[in-house]
Design brief:
542 residues, alpha+beta, Jelly Rolls, 3 domains, ten-stranded mixed beta sheet, six-stranded antiparallel beta sheet, 13 helices, 30% strand, globular
């Protein structure tokens, strides 16, 4: 470990003449060293220390570390426009970092969320000095991986982020009135006045994201996926089982593995978007759940920026934290699991009695049965509790939600042996609505012998053409979990998960006070005999 020299502040100019400012952390070491670059919009002094070690720690391992304010943020000049300038600015920043005094000309990038996105955008430009990246918790396809899930707008995360960025913009502009109003709004999410962003931040990306509710050309142009075909860099992909952007992490990883010639490693911990620690929501996953990412990144950068044989490439490239056993499991690839079906069975009272709806491992007899009925009242939508889209995210005891009469529950018999799941969970619901549109939320939980209910994974789907009976397929968040013998499985269905996702008015998303006033009561009938859950069973020995 090296001693650290006093922090420097340095500036560069983009190709269109905009000044970008950065802090530089250097070790007290002779000779040329590789550079680690992080580009972020939150004020460079923070340096993503909500999940990573401080840049000084990385510098002490023999790296020049550069933390840069992107265009229009912190003290950097220019106008901040979400993701719009990050390809060209990213390339210019990599080239500048490679030319710093005592640099050996080799650059790696790290960071999560927006800082993960800036890595992808820089990689699109293919600057020769960029040798490797470690993208964490990103949206590869911005529409399907970030802004929307199952066609439904991810309201709480998008709104909270938009308010945060707008508040910082007001601060940078010195607009105290807007700053105070937005700050107050940020403490009272979801907003009773959804129009506040239009009033105080008309330039916010949020308005475009709401308008572009389909995966149109706007998303194609903005998404890294659309421009990534020629990128081939060693990547350490980092995700969390309860991160709202896990879809993006896995989407990018699978795409790169399918076509890249360079090493691609994947690690997924039991974490939400932040922090990365042993406690997520109400669950404690044990000491092994503490983040190993800083040490892993140093090994990764030593391998690809210093040419050190760290043994990393001799290890299995996939490292997944198995919830339940609370240990890390390593795999040579993302395995293709076996599949097990559970079928829905009910006496028509699954919204009223816990023993009325069942998950059974054999197909129900083809005989007449009463359908289950769900009624959604916009005055009291089913609230979001944990999962990957809730705030806070993670695991919570949710029996009070399952006891609501606007939630259908289907519970299995106690397991006779431990059950290990790894992969995607799919829920197929045959249903029909009295309104043109509705949403479906599916939550898979485990029920303890004492009756406590803990969510494992969930999914959400925006449904159109609601008045026709049709089988809806809900893709749940991928999962890696061992469920203990004696516990039960439970599927919970509802027509809302608010404010994680926008509420459905019966004719589309509720995104304003006016559309809320026009929201209708929605009645849904569920045909249990044609509905089922598909579970990914981990094979023995894998």
């Amino acid at each position: 470990m090296y001693k650290i020299l006093p922090k420097e502040t340095a500036s560069m100019y983009t190709r269109d003449g905009v000044r970008l400012d950065a802090d530089i952390y250097r070790p007290d070491a002779a000779g040329e060293l590789p550079v680690l670059l992080m580009r972020q919009p939150y004020g460079r002094a923070i340096a993503s220390t909500v999940v990573y070690a401080h840049p000084m720690w990385y510098a002490a391992h023999g790296y020049i570390v550069v933390i840069q304010d992107v265009r229009g943020r912190g003290t950097s000049q220019g106008e901040f426009q979400l993701f719009q300038h990050e390809v060209a600015d990213g390339a210019d920043s990599v080239n500048w970092a490679a030319s710093l005094p005592n640099s050996n000309g080799m650059v790696g990038m790290y960071g999560f969320s927006y800082q993960g996105m800036t890595q992808l955008y820089a990689a699109i430009a293919k600057p020769p000095a960029l040798k490797t990246i470690c993208p964490a918790m990103i949206g590869y396809d911005l529409y399907a991986d970030w802004a929307y899930e199952g066609g439904a707008f991810c309201l709480h995360t998008n709104l909270a982020w938009a308010v945060q960025l707008a508040t910082e913009t007001a601060r940078l502009r010195g607009d105290q009135a807007a700053y105070q109003a937005l700050l107050a709004a940020s403490r009272n999410l979801p907003l009773n006045n959804p129009e506040i962003l239009q009033q105080l931040a008309p330039e916010s990306f949020y308005h475009d994201w709401v308008v572009h509710s389909e995966p149109d050309d706007y998303w194609q142009e903005l998404s890294p996926k659309s421009h990534f075909a020629g990128v081939d860099l060693p990547m350490l992909h980092i995700g969390g089982w309860f991160d709202t952007y896990l879809r993006g992490t896995l989407h990018l990883y699978k795409d790169m593995v399918a076509r890249a010639a360079t090493p691609q490693h994947l690690i997924i911990g039991p974490w939400a978007h932040l922090p990365w620690g042993r406690k997520v929501g109400a669950a404690d996953f044990g000491q092994l759940a503490a983040s190993p990412i800083d040490e892993m990144q140093i090994r990764w950068f030593d391998q690809f920026l210093k040419g050190v044989d760290t043994g990393l490439l001799d290890q299995p490239p996939v490292c997944l934290f198995e919830i339940g056993s609370n240990v890390w499991q390593k795999f040579s690839s993302l395995i293709t699991p076996l599949h097990k079906y559970y079928f829905l069975s009910s006496i028509g009272l699954a919204s009223i009695r816990e023993d009325a709806g069942k998950l059974i491992s054999h197909a129900p007899c083809p005989m007449p049965h009463a359908p289950d009925v769900l009624v959604h009242d916009p005055w009291r939508p089913v609230p979001a509790v944990g999962g990957h889209a809730g705030m806070p995210a993670g695991v919570f005891e949710r029996s009070q939600i399952d006891c609501r009469s606007d939630v259908l529950t289907y519970t299995s018999a106690p397991l006779t042996a431990d059950l290990s799941l790894l992969g995607d969970v799919l829920v197929e619901i045959c249903c029909q609505s009295d309104q043109d549109s509705y949403d479906l939320c599916a939550v898979l939980s485990q029920v303890d012998p004492d009756g406590r209910v803990f969510n494992m994974t969930q999914g959400y789907l925006h449904c159109r053409d609601g008045k026709h009976s049709i089988t809806r397929k809900i893709q749940l968040q991928p999962i890696c979990i061992r469920i203990t013998k004696g516990n039960c499985l439970r599927l919970s269905l509802s027509l809302a998960c608010y404010p994680a996702y926008t509420m459905n008015s019966g004719n589309g998303a509720v995104l304003s006070s006016e559309s809320l006033m026009n929201a209708q009561i929605i009645t849904l009938t569920v045909d249990c005999g044609a509905s089922q859950v598909l579970l990914p069973i981990m094979r023995n020995g894998e």
